Amino acid sequence: MRAWTYGALAAATLALATPAMSQGIQIGPDGIRVVPQEQVRERDGRPERREERREDRRELSEREAVRIARQEGVREVDSVRRTRGAYRIVGIDRRGDDIQVDIDRRNGAVLSVR
């Protein structure tokens, strides 16, 4: 009787877990999230989202990065440097102090303000 109960419990667990297998998991800068099957496409044996491929090709322009830096307090821009994954905007704030803003090139997130 006990073996039958364990067998039924195992079968129920597998039956409930099957729909979850039809989803993908995306690990990115925003953390871990579940991606519905409609948005997942197999490419070279690994799932890949179509929108994600398009977004990877586009990155922020220097002009957009300066606009974001101005929102963070930069009044006069001295230099804009493009690092591996970010823009570094160096300038002066409204009080005349030096300020440096690092902005992610892919999504425009402010990484640091110093």
Would you kindly provide a written description of the structure presented here, covering whatever features stand out?
There is one protein chain. With 114 residues, the chain is α+β, with helices and mostly antiparallel strands. The chain has helices at 2-17, 50-57, 62-71, and strands at residues 24-28, 31-35, 40-43, 46-49, 74-82, 86-93, 98-104, 110-113. The strands form 3 sheets. It has a 4-stranded antiparallel beta sheet with strand order 5-6-7-8, with helices on one face. β1 (24-28) and β2 (31-35) form a beta hairpin. The longest helix has 16 residues, at 2-17. It is rod-shaped and about 80 Å long. 8% of the residues are buried. Keywords: Signal. This is PepSY domain-containing protein. Residues 39-62 have a biased composition (Basic and acidic residues). Residues 25-62 are annotated as: Disordered.
Radius of gyration: 24 Å
Strands of the widest sheet, in order across it, are 5-6-7-8
CATH topology of the domain at 58-113: Nuclear Transport Factor 2, Chain: A
CATH class of the domain at 58-113: Alpha Beta
Using brief descriptors, characterize the structure shown.
single chain; about 110 residues; alpha+beta; Nuclear Transport Factor 2, Chain: A; four-stranded antiparallel beta sheet; two-stranded antiparallel sheet; 3 helices; 8 strands; about 30% helix
